[in-house]
Structure to design on (239 residues):
């Protein structure tokens, strides 16, 4: 697959509102995961017995990232009217969510840093192998896809998200990174990567502020003045 093919598909099928919704949902999910531990229902701040609990609670927040990503993907697909599937892998009982935007299959997964290499798994390799395949993939996902997701002639994209490496506090447990990546057919390396939170993805795909400013600009009222041309009769008027 060439860079131009990847870029053309992303520009055609990936929409800015989809990414914006995922970004908002991920931010909310990360914040809620921290609040559930630091400020449980009732509005009272929990008195921590010692700093030793920080590492335990921090790991709990980190473990919630995968579920946060799946919920954000479901919300984005629902808001945009895109099909998605929630499946349980028979090999380990892990749940996954796969969305579809035109010819794009979308996964969400947590990362620890933006330099992370692909974390390979059998089901990811199966989805990545569908890159422009002419046949329907037969993936062993337990109960089938019920024809809601069509993996033929598709390209897999991964929405990666994560938090800072730090302590148990609101800043370090908030969403700090979000990137869109396209793996190769073996899910062994990245063919395309773009940061979402610093505007790199929007710049590459042409989601510029110029269009938004143009939409927000007030419409100019038509002010038509009828005047006579010089040297012409009264019937010849110019608008």
């Amino acid at each position: 697959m060439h860079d131009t093919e990847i870029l053309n598909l992303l520009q055609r099928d990936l929409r800015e509102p989809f990414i914006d919704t995922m970004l908002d949902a991920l931010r909310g999910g990360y914040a809620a995961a921290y609040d559930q531990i630091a400020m449980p229902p009732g509005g009272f701040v929990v008195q921590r017995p010692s700093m030793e609990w920080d590492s335990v609670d921090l790991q709990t927040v980190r473990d919630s990232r995968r579920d946060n990503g799946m919920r954000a993907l479901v919300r984005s697909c629902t808001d945009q009217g895109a099909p998605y599937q929630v499946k349980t892998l028979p090999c380990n009982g892990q749940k996954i969510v796969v969305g579809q935007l035109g010819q794009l299959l979308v996964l969400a997964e947590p990362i620890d840093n933006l330099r992370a290499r692909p974390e390979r798994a059998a089901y990811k390799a199966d989805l990545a192998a569908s890159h422009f395949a002419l046949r329907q993939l037969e993936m062993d996902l337990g109960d089938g896809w019920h024809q809601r997701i069509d993996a033929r002639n598709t390209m897999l994209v991964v929405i990666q998200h994560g938090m800072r490496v730090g302590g148990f506090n609101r800043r370090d447990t908030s969403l700090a990174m979000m990137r869109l990546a396209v793996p190769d057919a073996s899910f062994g390396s990245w063919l395309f990567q773009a940061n979402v939170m610093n505007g790199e993805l929007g710049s590459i795909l042409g989601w510029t502020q110029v269009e938004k400013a143009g939409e927000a600009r007030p419409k100019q009222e038509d002010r038509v003045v009828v005047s006579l041309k010089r040297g012409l009769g009264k019937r010849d008027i110019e608008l």
Q: What stands out?
A: The longest helix spans residues 16-38.
